[in-house]
Write a structure and sequence with these properties.
About 55% of the residues lie in helices and about 5% in strands. It is mainly alpha-helical. The chain folds into two domains: about 200 residues, Fumarase C, Chain B, domain 1 (Orthogonal Bundle), CATH 1.10.275; about 300 residues, Fumarase C, Chain A, domain 2.
Length: about 500
């Protein structure tokens, strides 16, 4: 049975966005109360057009051309030209999931009933989503002020039967995709083009998917760190609850609690509890709650921003049907989202950096007490030497992505838009940072599992043992050298699929 989602414009959850963006069939429709609000706002637009009132973007040009008043008989042409002229994106297209999330968020904003579109426009947008007709949306071209004008214009083109779309995995003209689906393109009326391309939905959609992946990755990082600590015969004492509560940052307290449960019942720990000459572990082990916890709190901050954004009105102008007012403002400015996504990328980079340090320690015989590069026969075999080099390469890339985009304003539109947040750059950067982190954590898990082979028959803590068995269900232990890339890819698919995040959360 196909799951159904009714849009109200007010209570869309981030996890729901991810589910609709994915392959599971979910039929989305506009709620009745939302439809009434949409109709009321549309009546207000029709009224002001009939009265000949001068309203930005409805009866005038756009941006620096806002002082040009457009005659009533050319208002439909104005809206179509807006979409055509603003569909100026370049680069590789966004992923299907990112496009679907963008479509859903745009429909949800319109469902708030402050945009002045006809319900038929929302209905068609949702039918594209339901029938998996996906506009081809280039990833570059938005600065995130006046919203994501270029990406959203490429999306709106498909509603008009123009541009390029994908249907059933095949790329074709949007008009042909609509024809095959038995749908008619929309002829945009006054205000509707502006309502479709004015908003933060493209970078908010990419950011939402990146955040949820980051939350899974940060949970996975706790599992990877616990496995590394076991393999390096570290101590869990720094994770003690009484110690963490003396500095009660929520993220650190949560990470420490997860680590304690992952490590519970460890035979490896008991084997060196009383005769270990080491006094303290290195920071990459001892300070895991502080480091991972800070990333957790960065993700929590990003979540709080996105939970507001996906249900917010980000148009300009905004139609207030109850008071009969149409107000111009700056709700489309993406600074809150861009800044939060920059913080998310920083959190990912920090977790990735410390993960690489643990990997480096695991393969170093002088520091780990394990065979060189974790090979049973080092010398004739290189073992995991280059796996750590790959981790170092990924760490360097992550550090570049940690540089903020939201401070790099470049004025646009003849300096009328004299401060822009670079929201799309921040979103793409966060998305790429998460993907690199997933690869780095896959490497640490792979290396940690290999290191545990040399401590057998001692068993690690219960959560670590579960993670180890999950890895071994996909990747056998390393004996003689073999190509490591497929092993990394196999564990990476498990990281991305949430296998280790579920282990961490069951220990939470």
């Amino acid at each position: 049975m196909v799951e159904r989602l009714v849009l109200t414009g007010q209570n869309l959850g981030l996890e729901t966005v991810e589910r609709v963006a994915g392959p599971t069939p979910i039929r989305v429709s506009l709620g009745r109360a939302a439809r009434r609000r949409v109709e009321a706002a549309r009546r207000e637009v029709d009224s002001l057009v009939a009265e000949g009132r001068v309203v930005y973007g409805v009866t005038t040009g756009f941006g620096a051309l806002s002082e040009v008043v457009i005659p009533a008989e050319r208002l439909a042409e104005l809206q179509a030209n807006l979409i055509r002229s603003h569909a100026s994106g370049t680069g590789e297209p966004l992923d299907e999931a990112e496009v679907r999330a963008t479509m859903l968020l745009r429909a949800n904003v319109l469902a708030r009933g402050f945009s002045g579109v006809r319900p038929a426009v929302i209905d068609l947008l949702l039918e594209l989503l339901n029938r998996r007709i996906h506009p081809v949306v280039p990833r570059y071209g938005s600065v995130g002020a006046s919203g994501d004008l270029a990406p959203l214009s490429h999306l709106a083109l498909t509603l008009m039967g123009e541009g390029i779309a994908e249907l059933g995995g095949q790329r074709m003209s949007a008009g042909e995709a609509l024809r095959q689906a038995g749908l008619d393109p929309v002829v945009l009326a006054a205000k509707e083009g502006l309502a479709l391309n004015n908003g933060t939905q493209a970078h908010a959609a990419i950011g939402t998917l990146a955040l949820l992946a980051a939350e899974r990755a940060i949970a996975t990082a706790d599992v990877a760190a616990a496995m590394s600590l076991e393999a390096l015969r570290g101590t869990p004492d720094p994770f003690a609850e009484e110690l963490q509560l003396l500095r009660p940052h929520a993220g650190a307290v949560q990470s420490a609690a997860i680590l304690r449960r992952l490590l519970a019942g460890s035979e490896i720990r008991e084997s060196h509890r009383y005769d270990d000459p080491r006094v303290q572990d290195p920071y990459s082990l001892r300070c895991v709650p502080a480091i991972h916890g800070a990333a957790r709190q960065a993700a929590a901050c990003t979540r709080s921003v996105l939970e507001i954004e996906v249900n917010s009105v980000t148009d300009n102008p905004i139609v207030l049907a109850e008071s009969g007012r149409v107000l111009s403002g700056g709700n489309f400015h993406g600074q809150p989202v861009a800044q939060a996504l920059d913080l998310l990328a920083i959190g990912c980079a920090t977790v990735g950096n410390v993960s690489e340090r643990r990997v480096a320690r695991l393969v170093d015989a002088g520091r780990s007490g394990l065979p060189a590069f974790l090979s049973p026969e080092p010398g004739i075999n290189s073992g995991m030497m280059l796996v750590q080099v790959t981790a170092a390469s990924l760490a360097a890339e992550l550090r570049l992505l940690a540089n903020p985009a939201s401070v790099h304003s470049i004025p646009t539109s003849a300096d009328l838009e004299d401060h822009v947040p670079m929201g799309m750059a921040a979103a793409l950067k966060a998305r790429n940072a998460v993907r690199l982190l997933e690869s780095m954590l896959a490497i640490e898990l792979l290396v940690g599992a290999q290191a545990l082979e040399f401590l057998r028959p001692l068993r690690p803590g219960s959560g670590v043992a579960e993670a180890y068995e999950s890895i071994r269900s996909m990747v056998p232990p390393l004996g003689r050298d073999r190509v490591p890339a497929p092993d990394i890819a196999a564990v990476e698919s498990m990281v991305r699929g949430g296998v280790f995040a579920r282990i961490a959360r069951s220990a939470d």
